[in-house]
Amino acid sequence: MKAIRRFTVRPVLPDPLRPLSDLARNLRWSWHAETRDLFQSVDPEAWASAGGDPVRLLGGVRPDRLAELAADRRFLRRLTAAADDLDDYLTGDRWYQTQSDGLPAAVAYFSPEFGITAALPQYSGGLGILAGDHLKAASDLGVPLIGVGLLYRHGYFRQTLSRDGWQQEHYPVLDPHELPLTQLKEPDGTPAQVSLALPGGTALRARIWLAQVGRVPLLLLDSDVEENDFGERGVTDRLYGGGSEHRLLQEMLLGIGGVRAVRTYCRLTGHPQPEVFHTNEGHAGFLGLERIAELCATGLDFDSSLEAVRGGTVFTTHTPVPAGIDRFDRELVGRHFGPDAELPGIDAQRILALGMETYPGGEPNLFNMAVMGLRLAQRANGVSLLHGQVSREMFAGLWPGFDPEEVPITSVTNGVHAPTWVAPEVLRLGARQIGSERAEDALTVGGSERWDSVAEIEDQEIWELRRTLREQLVQEVRERLRSSWRQRGAADAELGWIEGVLDPDVLTIGFARRVPSYKRLTLMLRDRDRLTDLLLHPDHPIQIVVAGKAHPADDGGKRLVQELVRFADDPRVRHRIVFLPDYGMAMAQKLYPGCDVWLNNPLRPLEACGTSGMKAALNGCLNLSVLDGWWDEWFQPDFGWAIPTADGPCTDPDRRDDIEASALYDLLEQRVAPRFYERGRGGLPDRWIAMVRQTLGLLGPKVLAGRMVREYVDRLYAPAAQAHRALTPDTARDLAAWKARVRSAWPGVSVDHVETTATTATAELGTTVGLRVRVDLGDLGPDDVEVQAVSGRVDAEDRITDATTVPLKPTGTPDLEGRLVYEGPLSLDRTGPYGYTVRILPSHRLLASSAELGLVAVPSEEVVEGAGVLMR
């Protein structure tokens, strides 16, 4: 019989066990091994069946077992120690508290998804896992972050396979009362809510759930409340689900509702108000509009409010392709803003102007969330060095007249949260080597260039560790594979072969990620006969574990999954290659440590960062990857192998896949597998172990989320907080007025004449020549601009590369025509073809970049002809 109503019945813990509830409600348990061990000891079988979720565990423990534990002195001592440790973690000073003054009192971090733990399934892939790791690392470092997201009642989706290998999606309903969440409440006990106005006089309401991630509160907005109509209740139903208007409402709730939730949380708890707002990808970009509206409500005009908001905003882009950005029809966006909808005090046309693609190559009728994010943030970054370069090229149209390398988008390379992703066996080995406290600091705070203590671990110990992890993965794979085949309709009598799947002594390769086409799940199948030979090689066999989800609407991605599954179903190779459905955090935490090689073969340069290989590396797994994302930045032959690429505008896509697949097979056949099986005098693979040691000792410190968050604090949060404080209402008005004056006057700014003291077309290295430039500043003055000499090597078309800029100085008062003369030295510090130009840029102490306004004046063709010569 089916129940007509559902309740969540919480256990009543005996008084001595009350701290278990606090430990379960703080998600630090998800990365704190001692706390997880404590919960496991409550009831090992129940812990396993609860999937390692303490809230579910405590909801199912028998009362007699609780009474038994309440009288167990040894258990109570462990419980007291764990509770005291958590209290010390939450209240003691950490890295952030030891830094100099001037850091932000609080930072609000907005993301559409957060991967904290499998027990809180609010993520789809790398963006969410990165956001979760960002929160955890901020907690470990003591950074006063507030996370903001949405609570999806169906999460992303659960993946199974049909008998013929087609992906099938399932959307289990998540009950917030059964998750590690608490509801934010007003002082009178009623649920705290935020509300958005919708066209037609209706409203979208959402309650606020709180997930405590160590020291960091994560606020999750949930629209499934009785006050909403049916359509509005479903706004937070699924992650990345629904059509355009559904997605727009999700992103309005995340951005606008998210700011309102932060204000509510700070009001109710006394938490400091954020001085910096960090937008993790464009989905949350509307947060800037709400903050502008807040300031407009105090009497500040729109332009001044915009400047004040920009100063304290950081925007991180994660996509290297325009297709990865949410774009909405302008009429749809316009309908949701204005007098009869949300933000009625702001002209909807001003809102639309922030997101319109009004630049060469853009589509003027589309509202681009990333473009709005960039226009609303004074500081922006990509997530690896290469991705920063790709982003500068992709968004260069927003800063016309500037070379892509001058576009004000920097990069902070992603990192991963080591305590979450490093296997307990690896952690114990590190603790034995240097002590548990030093090991914890090394993995969380980071800061060292290398982990020298890795060099002191015996080869035998490293090799035994690697085999142990591989053996654990083999058992995990067999259990998951059996479960998958049962879901596909197989009977137990058909599955005896699964006991022979994978071998703990065979080179194991992992490949697991989302399945968009650019990640090329099936590149390994390009030459199936050659792959089969590698899998079944008599001396150097390999085995491959594959996992990944295609987006529910992506039939092309589902076909790739089916193609891989059908190959893995072949009885000839199914003991050597497996596809595991329902890839998520729980699977990943077994997969990364158990693999010897992590494979990544995207189309370069379409992988923004690709952090899965980082997680593998922290467990001593070597990377075999295309030089893209983070691997392009940190690859060394000591850490793994680089798959040669055939990228270029003239390469046919099919031919490119053929070339790169062949290169992958060559590497596996000639270098990777032979090295794994090669044995030295002691019977160990000495050269392989040396690579594992180098990966742990030299690459490990680089890939930490602690390093990443410290970079965000130093390079983005601290400057943003300073700008926020500097942009008082009066200062913001002055800056807005100055920008308006400069934009209005800029057509009258020009370079009238350039001359140099050089008399020939050649010069010796180290020579200094003088530049003299006459400029017309129109209605602007010398304090409004900077006149620069730009010099460097030149290519065959006289384009300056690797440019150096030097400010020139005014030499006196304006002449009779109002022109000013600027002079300065030009040092010829490089040999070969060398050239220079001059330009005029707006200059103001509150600009984060001289390119901020997208204005530049350069010499006309007539001026160029008389400007001297190129040095060759």
From TrEMBL:
Keyword Signal part of the UniProt annotation: no
Signal peptide: none
CDD domains with a match to the protein in the record: GT35_Glycogen_Phosphorylase-like
DUF3417 domain span: 13-120
Cofactor(s) the protein requires to work: pyridoxal 5'-phosphate
Keywords from the UniProt entry: Allosteric enzyme, Carbohydrate metabolism, Glycosyltransferase, Pyridoxal phosphate, Transferase
EC number(s) given by UniProt: 2.4.1.1
Reaction equations catalysed: [(1->4)-alpha-D-glucosyl](n) + phosphate = [(1->4)-alpha-D-glucosyl](n-1) + alpha-D-glucose 1-phosphate
Biological role stated in the UniProt entry: Phosphorylase is an important allosteric enzyme in carbohydrate metabolism. Enzymes from different sources differ in their regulatory mechanisms and in their natural substrates. However, all known phosphorylases share catalytic and structural properties.
Family: Belongs to the glycogen phosphorylase family.
Protein name per the record: glycogen phosphorylase
Superkingdom of origin organism: Bacteria
